[in-house]
Structure formats: C-alpha cells, structure tokens
C-alpha cells in the first residue's frame, strides 16, 4: 500500500534527522494512512479507500457519496 491518501492527496514529506551534534541524515515523514471500507448506499456495496486520519474526518464531515464523486471526477478508480 502506497503512503498516499485518496481523499486529501497527502503524501510523504522528506526532511532530516538532526542529532545532538547537529549531524543531518535524510528521513521520511509518512502520513497516517489507513485502509478502510465504507458503505456506499447508492451502489449498495462497500468501497475500500486508503485514507489518512484527516481524510476519515473529512468523510465524516461531508459524506461518503460526495467524496467518492470527487475522487471519480479526478479520474481515480474506486
């Protein structure tokens, strides 16, 4: 599963680990990605989405129907 949210579009960010002596090494900040099933009443089936924690809150706020329509408008398969 790639670290990419289908709702918000958040991806990993890159930066540095900074030690006590101030040496810098590359690191990756991964988003909190979850694979969740959501019931889609209009199609009478479940859809599986990879969403971040913020994406789950967005679905709760706007509704799964509106979010799935937005994802399909971008051309992604649901």
UniProtKB/TrEMBL annotation:
Keywords recorded for this protein, A-Z: Ribonucleoprotein, Ribosomal protein
Top-level division of the source organism's lineage: Bacteria
HAMAP family membership: Ribosomal_bL28
Similarity remark: Belongs to the bacterial ribosomal protein bL28 family.
Species this protein is from: Kribbella deserti
One GO term describing the cellular component: ribosome
Name used for this protein in its record: Large ribosomal subunit protein bL28
InterPro entries (UniProt xref): Ribosomal_bL28, Ribosomal_bL28/bL31-like_sf, Ribosomal_bL28_bact-type, Ribosomal_bL28_sf
NCBIfam families: L28
